[in-house]
Design goal:
This protein is an alpha/beta fold and about 325 residues long. Helix 8 links the parallel strand 9 and strand 10. The chain contains 12 helices and 13 strands. The two termini are about 15 Å apart. The strands form 3 sheets. It has a 6-stranded parallel sheet with strand order 6-7-8-9-10-11.
């Protein structure tokens, strides 16, 4: 039987061909839940924040975006039920993630209750992540469509290695796409790559995040030449737009448009970063469709390359082969 490709969204599976313009690395809400439960934060109320998120997502939908990938996982304050309230009210597709955002150590809970399998922490974590993909997140019907892991300035600590290995194990079991947070200045996308290779991951099913934070195009090329895709996914934050766009123009001319995706790493609301801070005026979901895509056209990037960046690559990466029987389960 011929298999088609489907994308797991928060409202259920859809045909990959219907995904459209997709922002590949965003967040609905970034929160510190324990702080919010005990002290005053920037969180007004669930109702206020849900309504504001719906407003922002409908605005970006009007700009032609039809899907976003939300990479909020353990360590960033994922609340799948709150996310679901937004997903049910907006006209675009939201893809949720499983995995862990571990920059140094897992939450202290794991010191006393490590979810190991035969003494292997990574395998134990992977069982949780697989359940999020195959059964649903936190007892809901909502299944994750991608896997998240992270490395940063702390390097490859024991817990970071376990979480990256868990992502690899989960990908091998489910076929889901791995999407990462990586520090471009330290080039630690290569650290992630080494673990993925050790675990036998199909590198064409990996997106190394935040590579666009660096102007070192040799770093970009080295990751893509291995078969992986890179995230040029922090427009409006840090490195200037002109530098980010110049990198895309060069790499498209070199034939790499099939291994890059665009986004902002922004949030409808973040308790970690005040978006009113000077210099962050462009850090929002609308900047890529309104400013970056027109700039790429202005710089002579072919329409076929632009379509790769925002439509074709997300469709290929997020889609997983499923028979009709599997889709109905």
């Amino acid at each position: 039987m011929t298999a088609s490709r489907t994308v797991t969204t928060m409202r259920g599976p859809i045909d990959a061909e219907g995904l459209g313009f997709t922002l590949m690395h965003e967040h609905l809400f970034v929160r510190s839940l324990e702080t919010a439960q005990n002290y005053s934060t920037t969180w007004d109320s669930d109702d206020v924040r849900v309504a504001d998120a719906v407003r922002q997502l409908e605005a970006v939908r009007a700009d032609g975006v039809s899907a976003i990938v939300d990479l909020t996982v353990l360590g960033i304050g994922r609340d799948i039920r709150l996310m679901d309230r937004v997903a049910q009210e907006v006209g675009l597709h939201i893809i949720a993630a499983t995995g862990a955002y571990v920059l140094d150590r897992l939450p202290y809970h794991f010191r006393f209750h490590p979810p190991t399998r035969n003494g292997d922490l990574a395998a134990g974590l992977a069982e949780w992540f697989v359940r999020d993909i195959e059964e649903g997140i936190a007892g809901t019907r909502i299944r994750a469509g991608v896997i998240k892991c992270a490395t940063d300035t702390a390097g490859m600590t024991e817990d970071v290695v376990a979480s990256v290995r868990a992502a690899a194990i989960t990908a091998n079991h489910t076929g889901a796409l791995i999407m990462t947070h990586a520090d471009a200045a330290l080039r630690n996308g290569h650290d992630q790559q080494r673990i993925f290779v050790q675990e036998g991951v199909d590198l064409s099913r990996v997106v190394i995040g935040h590579v666009g934070d660096s102007t070192d195009l040799n770093y970009h090329r080295s990751l893509m030449d291995s078969g992986m895709t890179i995230g040029l996914d922090r427009f409006g934050l840090g490195l200037s737009t002109s530098e980010r766009v110049a990198a895309i123009v060069t790499l498209c001319r070199e034939g790499y448009s099939d291994r890059m995706v665009l986004s902002h790493d922004a949030a409808c609301h973040s308790e970690w970063i005040d978006t009113a801070t000077p210099g962050l005026e462009n850090w929002n979901f609308q900047y890529v469709p309104r400013v970056v895509v027109p700039l790429l056209h202005e710089k002579g990037v072919a329409e076929s390359d632009v379509q790769n960046l925002v439509v074709n690559n997300p469709q290929r990466l997020l889609g997983m082969a499923r028979t009709s029987e599997e889709r109905e389960r």
